[in-house]
Amino acid sequence: MTLLFSPCVMASDLTIDKQIDQLLVPIANFFTSIIFYSVDVAGTQFPLIVMWLIIAAVIFTFYFGFINVRGFTHSCKVIRGDYSNPDDPGEVSHFQALTTALSGTVGLGNIAGVAIAVSIGGPGATFWMIIAGFMGMSTKFLECTLGVKYRYINTQGKVHGGPMYYLKNGLAELGYEKLGKVLASFFAVCCVVASLCGSNMLQSNQAYQQFVIAMGNETSFWADKGWLFGSLLAIVIGVVIIGGIKSIAKVTEKLVPLMAGIYLSAALFVLAYHYTEIPHAVSLIINGAFNPTGVVGGIIGVMIQGFKRSTFSSEAGVGAASIAHATASTKEPVREGYVALLEPFIDTIVICTITALVIVITGAYQTTDGIDGVALTSRAFASVIWWFPYVLSVAVLMFAISTMISWAYYGSIAWGYLVGESKILDLLYKVVFCIFTALGASVSLHAVIAISDSMFFSMAIANIIGLYLLAPQVKLDLRKYQNIYCKSYRPKDNG
After folding, report:
1. What's the pLDDT score for residue 418?
2. How many structural domains comprise the chain?
3. Which domain holds residue 351?
4. Which residues does 132 contact at the CB level (< 8 Å), separation at least 6?
5. Is residue 312 part of a domain?
6. Are 255 and 106 in contact (CB under 8 A)?
7. Which of 117, 216, 402, 437 could join 125 in a cystine, given CB atoms 3.0 to 4.6 angstroms apart?
8. 94 conformational bin, left if phi > 0, alpha if psi -120 to 50, beta if neither
9. Model confidence band, residue 295 (pLDDT cutoffs 50, 70, 90)
10. Is 6 inside any structural domain?
């Protein structure tokens, strides 16, 4: 009698949140073991997929003559509207395309991810995040140029672009038709899964965690109501994404500057409070990058943490941002590539660096007490002013919403590529997306990050192959563009 009923009793003792978590942890572990297959480098495990992305970023930086440095001024001019033409094909402005893509990258990776990297790899991980972000600017330029170059605009004026299209059509032009179709389909499947199980769930999870912290942790009504918080968040997301890219762009062009302003203002206040300690914090970051102490794997371990978090934050090489940039109103694909290279600069070099400085300068990373992610960043903010976690809660919620609505669009375009244009099927995807938003708040950080990282990086497998093959086409386009619009700009020819 006892044996028959004890399993039921045990199951009934588990909350909805814990039951969902138990279901997802083994799935997360399975994907992690495949995507993050690692090799031993100097005594520490180096995931091959991270190496794959970093090597590509370095190669593209040299191949395009340090476009990430030489093209910065022109990028700002394009964003300012110096080259805008209302008659150009597309759905949104350069600025709206940038803010939509930024809303997909400037998210909790900048808050939770940086905290995790610093707590594991020490202050030195910040240095390698900056280096990876700098190199990633060149990758972003390449993939977003291709996103516009091979985009498809239907009779209603709706844009379909991104790696699915430049892998399929671009490689077909080079004579690799079968390879292009396989890579495009692989990317599309990974993108759909990533949009549902990756960014979506991670953002929902960390927004909920910060909300609970602000409300009083385990004493709060919300302490075990992740499913309820996620459901309310899903309703908000659903209202926005039903309208498509134009609706999303109208929200992101206002939300991104607002959320970045709130977060950076609070972070800069913390740094100003500790202004006398900034030189020491910078010293810890630089010395920790090359002479780390107490970190598993030494300098390689620190480098891996920095590279991994930077790639996750900026998504350079993953290819998803090119889906947003493909919608920009322009007849010059290279022009949108210039716009795109600003993403990793804003996302990683500016926001991630400031976050890391706050964590390092307050010493929050030294006594984690088992906390990680956004909770660690919240502790750093609270060390200066007790109510700052409330400000962080607002910023985190906006970060989460902005990222999710962008990824809902990415996933819907990838879904449309796989199943064809259908309003009913598109609506079905958006409903499923909202369901996963609710689920995301109910699982542990470990399971969410494992699934999120795996799905993000899996897209890079197909994307980087396509970038290597299509890079010469973009280089030719870049030379033509420079002859017309950038006559004072002559990068060194690297072959």
Report:
1. 92
2. 1
3. 42-485
4. 54, 57, 306, 307, 310, 311, 314, 348
5. yes
6. no
7. 117
8. alpha
9. low
10. no
